[in-house]
Each structure stands twice: as structure tokens, then as C-alpha cells.
Amino acid sequence: MSASRSSLEQKPAPVEAAAWTVADAADYYRVDAWSDDFFVVNESGHMAVQPFGEPSLAIDMLDVLAELRERGIRFPCLVRFQDVLRARVRRLNEAFIDAIAEAGYDSVYHTVYPIKVNQLHEVVEEVLDAGKPYGLGLECGSRAELVATLAHLESDETLLLCNGVKDRAMIALILSSQRIGKNVIPIMEKYGEFEELIRLAEEAEQQTQFGVRIRLRTSGAGKWADSGGYQSKFGISLPELMRVVDALKASDSGHRLALLHFHLGSQISEIPQLRQAARELAHIYAELIGLGLPVRYIDVGGGLGVNYTDASEEGGIRYSLMEYANAVVYAIKDVCDERGVPHPVLVSESGRAITAHHSVLVVEALDAYRKNSAEHAPPLAKDAHRIAHNLDEILSWLTATEAGATTVDKVIEAYHDVVDIQDEAATMFSMGYLSLEQNATIERMYWSSCAAVLAHLRALDPEHAPPEVQQLEELLVDQYLVDFSIFQSVLDHWAIQQPFPIVPLDRLDERPTRRGMLVDLTCDSDGKISQYVSADEDKKFLHLHTLNRGEAYPIGFFLMGAYQDIMGDAHNLFGRVNEVHVYGDAEEEGNFWIEKVIPGAKVQDMLAQVQYFPNDLQRRMQEQVKQKIDAGDIRPKRGMEILDQYRAAFAEETYLLNTRAPRREEE
């Protein structure tokens, strides 16, 4: 096995092995790589949040969970740390302010928050309030988002960008908002939209302003590379742009073109692509200025990356926020200075970078299941089948041989014999030559043998690990049943294999000894977390702790604030989870206070989405119960109790009520 393998590999360890520390936990779960200083492992072995992004104030997440339990709030629960939102807004704007000052850039920068990233009203209002000192604006991409954002333009200076496909009614509403003095800029995605905008503006006898999204030659990098370049879904080509220019010049209305926009994708992984795209758009801007069109804004779109894992791994973001700001400012400044044109107002739509960190999904493990072992089974009966005795002989050798006291070849040979016996047992059982009881005994010994083989191979630690190591690691992973739905709360993991940092919130000062895979409540085979953020080379499992009877085992899913809140799917009719909003305050007990609690969806809410209604369902159930009473199958009192039980279920939450303590895996 290579030397870079995680120190958490489960080799048999001597008693004097180095003690596990909270620093080891932070390293294993890669907290420093993704937390951006907002989350830490504290000295008590708990996850803690630093809501202002600095160590001056920290909130122990177990204190937050304790207060939620006291209030009767169940898990799963989405915990929003609203101060983190504000800190992210501040960091983004101040990075551009510093870059502009250092470069001597002769204009300003405005953040625009694209609400598609998280449209929840509380999130949008918090972002807007935090962005007031910086002139933060909004972006919308649909009719519903347009209606939501227009009402939040309290200042006529607040910028609202309108992306996406727009029909005649949407364009008419945008023109009406411009008529009352709002700084709304529809961005033309297709040439036909430009024609419709000009036609409606002329019919209304009003001036208008608009922007265009340019389909650049430069494409992005990473998962969303096709968002830019010639394969982009949206954008006006350069020939179409010249048609727009000619039409504007012909009507002496070049002043209407206010903004140029490009978008390289949701997670720009490399700075060179961004710098190249910014320079390309800056040259287009300079040409348009030379043609007499006084464009005022350059919008570099979204794509400011967020590290969900280590920057060195696939999908990692290999630049800092400051490097991003410098790349945009200097690329555009250099072109403008070369071409002798004014510096435009800079705009970016960095929604993921603003919202991702502030939300943590807290779930609880209900149970943990490991493969059945023969460790506590009674001795094999003398009249047991021949193949059971053969397997017992191999298992006895594996367990009696001291770890590391044999050879890799002998262990691999034993493993192959174990697999052959298991296959033979399956064949014999299917033909009726092996009893159910003996088949179960062989299965227990099979799993015990596999665990013993893996322990030997880890102890021998060969320079080149045989493929059997990975096979066994995947076979022997425990399943942790967790009270949530991946399709409702972590949809991007299922849809695009997005890894999310997942960390136990407690016991981080204790070495985690189990390899686990988290599985959800849905009856879907995809309802599992299959990729993890950790120091292990194998990302298909995560080291977790053995469940203790009578103790909750809370687990946090971090960086949940972008897209996951709004994109959830109602698989099995699991609905939105409970939600709480937390603020940091050094004068409050525990350094925090809870501002708002938003209850999760109830059973009746989810049923209504698919056209089932309480009155109709209860009437149907009442008729069925009455038939059973009339037939004498149940007594009337018992029938009414069943009806009451059924009616009460409508007001319950869609997730499980975890009133029973987790069992130990070995029980």
C-alpha cells in the first residue's frame, strides 16, 4: 500500500498507538480545505462555526442542537448561520475594492446576486441588507424570479439584471419597471429578443436600456465548461452582435446598449480561462466604444469557485478570492488602457460564493448495519456440511495467525478459497442440498473470513496493494441509515455527483473506527452518499464512529446553501426539513441566538402537491373502518382509535421521529 494512504486505515494497532486528536479529525475530514475559516473542530471534539470568519467568536454546534431539542425541533434540520452570508458578501466586495485600488482602476464594482442559487426570501433579504454599503444588486432568470426581485428594488440605483428566455409579457413588465425609474437591464440571449424589446419600447414610446450576453470563443473549464464558448446554451454570436450594432446606429440609439455579459460556468476551476474571457470581452467593449456605443457595464457572470473538497483534487478550486478579483480587474484594465477607452463598471454574479457556506444540514443516524459475522456464533456442529467445515478451517487459520506473521500470497490464496466456498454454498442451496440454517452459518463465516483477510493485508502493507484490498473494502463498508432524503436535501450529489463535506458533529476527539456509507430513507437504490470528502484515497466511504446505545449521533452536511435548498425533489413524498436561523452574539449564552424557526413540510402538505386531500382521504378511510365494524371484524372503540391514529398522521412531519436510541452495530 502506498505511503500516502490515510492514517485511518484499520490495521490492527498496538495499545501504545498515538492518541487521536481533534487536529487529526480536522485533517481527516479536510476541514481547512473547504471551511474558509467559518468551521473548525473545537477542543471538546465538536464542530463549531465561526460566523464572522475569524476566531474572535465561535459557536459550538452541539449547543445549537441542544437548544433545538429543548424547543422540540426535530431533525433533519437545516441550520442557517446568517452572519456567514453577510461575511461572504463583505469579503467578495472588499476583494474587488482592494483590487481596484491596487490596480488604479478608474471605476467601481457591483456584486449582483443571482437568486436562482437560493431564492428563499430570508436568504435574498439577508444578502440585500449585507450588500447595501456596496450597492449590491439582483439577477433573475424567469418570470417568477422577475416578479420577486422587482419588489425588492427599494433604491432606484439598485441594479437588476434579467437573464434567461423572455417572452413579450416579461419584456413589457421590464419596460414598465424602467418607466418608473428602476435600474433594470434585460440581457438579450437571442437576437429575436432584441427585436421584440425594441418593438415594444417603440410602441410604448419610451427609451430603454439593455445588455447582451456574448457567446465568446473562450470556453470554461471543469463540469460546466459548456456554459461558455461556442457550445453555450445562451448568448449572441459576434455576427448577431453586429446586427444589433447596425440596428442601433441606424436609429441613432446606440446609448441603449448598456452592458456586455459573459458566463463561463458555475465553478471556474482555473484562472487563465477567466482572464482570457475577460480580455476577449474587454476588446469587444473597446470596439463598441470606438463605434460610438457608450457601454457602461461589463458583467463577468458567475463562476467564482467554492472548494467542496481539497483544491488539489479533481474539481478543486486552485485560486483565492483575491486572485479572482485581481484577474478580472487587471485583465479588463489592461485592455482598456491599451485601447484608450474608459474603464467600465464591473459586475459579477457570484451566487454560489455568497451562499454556499451559510447552511448546514443536520441529520441523525438511526442505525448502522455491518455484515453478519461469526464472532459470537456457537461452535460449528460436528454434523455440519463438509463445505462449512472447510470454511471454518480457513477462518480458524486466519484468526489464529498473528497479523503480519504470514505472506500476502498465502492470505490471497485463502481469500480465493473463501470465495469459492461461498459460491459453492450458493449453488448447493439453490439446488436444495444445503439447509437454510447451514447456508446462514456459512454466510456468517464468509463475512468473518473477509474481515480477517483484509486485516492481514493491511498489516502486511505491501508496496503495491492487490486488487483484493479494494474489493474487500467495498464489500465490508457499514451502512449508516440516516433520517433524511438525498433527493430532497442533497440533490446535486445524486444528479451531478457533487461531493459535499460530511462530518460528525460530536466525538471528533475520538478515533472513528468504522468505514461507513450513508443511506437515506427513500426506497431508491440511488438514495445513498457514494462520494465523500476525506483524507482517504478511496472516496467511496467515510470513517465514522460506532453508535452508542442511548446517544444521538448527529452528522453535518456542510456547504448546503447554494442550489440544494431550492432544487429538492419530493421522492417518496419526503418534504422540506425544519429550518432555523442563527446569529452570533458574544453577549448571549453560547455566543448565539435563534431568530426564526420555519417548520418543515407536513404529511398533508406533501399529499396536497399530488392532489390528495385530507377530507377525501379521511372519508374513504372512515368508510373502510365502518365496513369492518359492521362486519364484526373489529369492535367500534378500536375502529375509532384506528381512525384517530390515521387522522393524526396528516399533521406529522414527513421524516421519522427518532425516539429510539441507536443500537450498537454488533447487537
> Mean pLDDT, as a whole number?
90
Please provide the count of β strands: 20
Kindly state the percentage of residues in helix. Answer: 25-40%
Structural class: alpha/beta
Describe the largest sheet.
9 strands, mixed
- End-to-end Cα distance, whole Å, is 33 Å
- The CATH homologous superfamily of the domain at 82-356 corresponds to Alanine racemase
Mind telling me the C-alpha Rg? Answer: 30 Å
- What does the oligomeric state look like here? single chain
Task: Provide the CATH topology of the domain at 82-356.
Answer: TIM Barrel
Report the principal-axis shape.
Answer: globular
How large is the count of helical segments? Answer: 21
Q: Beta-strand percentage? A: 5-15%
CATH architecture of the domain at 82-356: Alpha-Beta Barrel
Report the uncertain regions: 1-16, 224-230, 660-667
CATH class of the domain at 82-356 reads Alpha Beta
Quick synopsis:
This protein is of the alpha/beta class and 667 residues long.
List keywords for this structure.
about 675 residues, alpha/beta, TIM Barrel, Methane Monooxygenase Hydroxylase, Chain G, domain 1, nine-stranded mixed β-sheet, eight-stranded parallel β-barrel, about 15% strand, disordered N terminus
